[in-house]
Amino acid sequence: MNSAITILLTILVFGVIIMIHELGHFIVAKLCGVRVLEFSMGMGPAIFTHQKKSEEMELDPETGTMMPVNRNTKYSVRILPIGGYVSMEGEDSASKDERAFCNKPIWKRFLIVVAGAVMNLLLGFLILVGAVSTMEHVPTKQIASFQENAASQAAGLAVGDEILKVNGHSTLTYDDVITEILSDDDGTVDFQIKRDGTVQNIEKVTFYTEITDSKRELDIDFKLLAVENSVGGTLSYSAGRAVSLGKLVWVSLGDLVTGKVGFDQLSGPVGVGEALGQAASISVMNLLILIAFLTINVGIFNLLPIPALDGGRLIFILIEAIFRKPVPAKYEGLIHAVGLLFLFGLMIIVTLKDIIRLF
Question: What is the pTM of this model?
Fold first, then answer.
C-alpha cells in the first residue's frame, strides 16, 4: 500500500479510536452532572470553537465587582486529527464547584473514568459485527472432517466433536481453537471436547510438525465446520471473537511481563501503521479485524493500574472508597505526571525502534 495512504489510514484509525474513548468520558460525565469545560476533537491549535452563551455573573475577588462568566462546555476542532480530549472541572485539582468531578460521589466518578474503555470495547464489538455480517458462513468449533490418515483422528477425535478446551484453555470461537493449537510448544495437544452431549478429554494428540527456517510449522489435520450465517450467528461469533481478542491482549501483556516476548517485539504507532497497511492490502476483513483488536487493546490497556491511565485513576478512587478519604490532589497529580512522562518516554523509545527497523 502507498506510504501516504498508510499514514492517513493510521491517523484516521488512531483518531477514531481515541475520539470514541474520550466521547465515552464526555457522555457519562454529562449524564452524571459534571461540568465539562471542553470537549476537543483533535489536538494542537483550534480551528473551530463553539460555546453556548451564558448570562452567569460571578464576583471578581480582585476588583470586588460582578463579572460575566461562561461555564458552558466549549466544543473545539483542532488542527491535528490525532484523537481528542475531555477537560472537566475539578478533574486534577480541588474545586468548590458542586458540579466538579472531584465533588461527585465515588460511583459516578468510577463510571466516568471507566466509560472510555467501555466505549472502546463496544466499538471493537460493533466493528466485528459489521465484518462478520458480510460472511456467508460462520466457522464453529465442531470438527467437520479429517485429512487422510489424520493423527488427531487416530488419537481419538471424531467428526462432530465440539472443542471446548485446548491445553486447558477455554475456546470461545474457531479462532481460539486454531490459535491455541498453533501456539503449542511441542505439537502434542490435550483436548476437552463435547460428544453426544457429554464432555470428554482426549489427551496427547500429536500433530505432524516440520521445522523450516528455524520455525516450527504444525499441520492441523482436521477442518472445523462452518454454518450458514444468521443474525444470531453474527452476534454470537462477534461477541466470542471480541472476548478472544481481549484475552489475546492480556496474554500478550503477560508474555511481555514474564519475558516470554521481548521488548524488541513491542510496536508503537509506526509499527501499527505498517501492520494496518499490510492488513488493508490483503482484505477489508483483515483490516477490520485488526482495527477491532486495536480498539479493544486501547480499552484494556487504559484499565491497567498505571498512573496517568484510566486504570491509575481508578486506583485512587478505590483508595478513597476503602479509606473514606481521598489522596490529596497535589500528590495524585504528581503521580499521574510521573506516569505520563514514563508513558511518553516509552512511546518515544518504541517509535524510534520501529523507525530504525524500517531502515
Answer: 0.84
N residues, the chain? 359
Residues 6+ apart with CB under 8 A from 159: 143, 144, 145, 146
Q: What letter represents residue 22's amino acid?
A: E
Instruction: List pLDDT tens digits, range 13-41.
Output: 888 899 999 999 999 999 999 999 999 98
3-state secondary structure of 160: coil
Please give the angle made by the CA atoms of 47, 114 and 91, to the nearest 5 degrees: 55
Task: Compute CA distances 209 → 124, 166, 185, 219, 220, whole Å.
Answer: 34, 17, 11, 6, 9
Neighbour-count burial for 290-305, b at 16+ CB within 10 Å, e otherwise: bbbbbbbbbbbbbbee
**Alpha-carbon gap, residue 172 to 58, rounded angstroms:** 58
Q: Would you say 300 and 21 are in contact if contact means Cβ atoms under 8 Å apart?
A: no
- Give span(s): CATH 2.30.42.10, the chain: 137-228
Superfamily for domain range 137-228: PDZ domain (2.30.42.10)
Is residue 22 among the annotated active site residues?
yes
Block residue for cell numbers 518516554:
345
Q: How does pLDDT run across 50-75, given as a tens digit for each residue?
A: 888 876 666 666 666 656 666 788 89
With beta carbons less than 8 A apart as the criterion, state whether 86 and 115 touch: no
Burial 139-157 (b: 16+ CB within 10 A, else e): bbbbbeebeeebbbbebbb
